[in-house]
Design a protein that fits this description.
There is one protein chain. The protein has 450 residues and is mainly α. It has a domain of 86 residues: Alpha-Beta Plaits (2-Layer Sandwich), CATH 3.30.70. 64% of the residues lie in helices and 2% in strands. It is built from 20 helices and two strands. Strands 1-2 form a two-stranded antiparallel ribbon. Helix 6 packs across helix 11, helix 9 crosses helix 16 and helix 12 crosses helix 16.
Length: 450
């Protein structure tokens, strides 16, 4: 009987850095419970410092001090990355945080933010400097979110330093998260302008094309008019054009904050994506109806607006609120991030994101982007399928020498990076080269639906 060898022991230096991260989490707990404002702020920033320094030091020791290359060893044997006890504990902690953030941290009008009140007010000084106003739970969340992208982005830079494509792509999501999704919205508020996220577009940021949001922005003068123009052009004009030339990767893997967190903080869990046909069926059953639902809600709200508010009564706004609760909060937040350690990092992108569905339809049917394969060189090692976070069995395409043309593919390029033989290549070629893959996908779809 085969007995797998024991896991390699963690070096003492790595243990020391992980102890620093654990100390930071303990300091964060003390900041959450300490009633003294001065000590609370001290604990909070000590926590950020310990977590940041510990994560960066561990990343360098783990990846920077070893030969470059995609290292996927023992992922299915570790409790943290194989749905073991550590993974479940991490998933429960992340899910609990999102539940508290969304439903137990409302501002009561007196500056109290529920269970996260102490952590929120520990950021008041930073918030005043950036936004000229006190912190709230969303500023706390944005700070944590951005820090996670930056720290785990540094880990990815060390881990994939041998790949120019991965270095540029990782730097891109770090830049857009820090600059356009965190600092710029804060500076807009500092100058008493509407908070606006220039890297989020309809239908992902669904309310940006709702009549109420558009009317409100238009009343804010030239800046508001530009925001409406930007949102409409990026959603309806730039997105199809960019997707035609570059596939959905220009957004999902280079710009989007959801994708940015998945590609950095979610990188240790990319192998957990379900690659079964049953998962593919659920992908089709969920993501396209969600896209259709937000299109319908947007159209109904505009029809209601055009009729002077007499068409739907409160039904349109109620539908929008329920969509925001079920899809915008539960699916994208609680499930989308909380289930990273159990279902992989792209659960939201794969099964729920309407922007991914929109981009995927464009990519599958109209884009020049594809991943070409050379079946004669494939050795069936399975590395490409193992690293695919979107649940695509890339190896099957490689073995047949068929280009990968899938609506789900976000063009992260890890399949190509992980291939030891250079079988897979990301290309923006003529559409004629997509014919074989389209025929194979059609045949696979018929088998799935039968």
């Amino acid at each position: 009987m085969f007995v797998s060898p024991p896991l390699p022991a963690t070096p003492p230096t790595e243990k020391l850095t992980l102890a620093g991260v654990a100390g930071g989490l303990l300091a964060l707990l003390l900041a959450l419970t300490d009633a003294d404002p001065g000590r609370r702020q001290l604990w909070f920033y000590a926590a950020l410092g310990l977590v940041s320094s510990g994560t960066l030091a561990w990343s360098w020791l783990k990846f920077g001090g070893h030969p470059a290359g995609v290292q996927q060893d023992n992922l299915w044997r570790r409790a943290s990355t194989a749905r073991g006890a550590v993974a479940w504990a991490t998933g429960l902690a992340l899910t609990g945080f999102y539940v508290v953030l969304y439903w137990f941290s409302d501002n009561d009008g007196l500056g109290h933010f529920g269970l996260l009140n102490n952590l929120v007010h520990a950021l008041d000084g930073f918030s005043h400097s950036l936004r000229a106003r006190p912190a709230d739970q969303w500023f706390l969340y944005g700070t944590f979110y951005t820090l996670a992208v930056l720290l785990m982005g540094a880990r990815a830079l060390w881990k994939y330093r041998h790949s120019r494509y991965q270095l540029i792509r990782t730097a891109s999501v770090m830049f857009f998260q820090l600059g356009f999704a965190f600092l710029l919205p804060g500076l807009l508020q500092f100058f008493q302008q509407p908070e606006f996220y220039f890297t989020y577009f309809w239908p992902l940021k669904y309310d940006y094309l709702f009549p109420g949001t558009v009317t409100s922005l238009l009343h804010n003068g030239g800046v508001g008019v530009f925001m409406v123009f930007w949102g409409a052009v990026m959603s309806l004009v730039a997105t199809p054009v960019l997707t035609y030339y570059f596939g959905k990767r220009w957004y999902c893997s280079w710009v989007c904050g959801c994708g940015g967190l998945a590609e950095t903080a979610g990188d240790p869990y990319r192998h957990l994506a379900d690659k079964s046909r049953a998962a593919w069926r659920w992908e089709v059953r969920l993501i396209y109806p969600i896209l259709g639902l937000i299109i319908l809600i947007t159209a109904l709200l505009w029809a209601h607006f055009a009729t002077g508010g007499t068409l739907l009564g409160d039904a349109g706004n109620v539908a929008a609120k329920w969509y925001g609760f079920a899809i915008g909060s539960v699916f994208s937040g609680v499930i989308g991030v909380g289930f990273y350690p159990l279902m992989g990092a792209r659960v939201w992108c794969r099964f729920g994101c309407p922007m991914a569905a929109y981009l995927g339809l464009l990519q599958k049917h109209f884009s020049r982007f594809r991943i070409s394969t050379n079946g004669g060189q494939c050795i069936s090692c399975g590395n490409c399928s193992n690293v695919c976070e979107m649940g695509i069995d890339v190896q099957q395409y490689a073995q047949r020498g068929a280009p990968v043309v899938r609506a789900a593919c976000v063009g992260c390029g890890l399949c190509s990076t992980a291939c030891p033989r250079g079988v897979l290549n990301l290309e923006n070629g003529p559409r004629e080269g997509r014919l074989q893959a389209s025929q194979l996908i059609h045949a696979d779809s018929l088998r799935i639906l039968s």
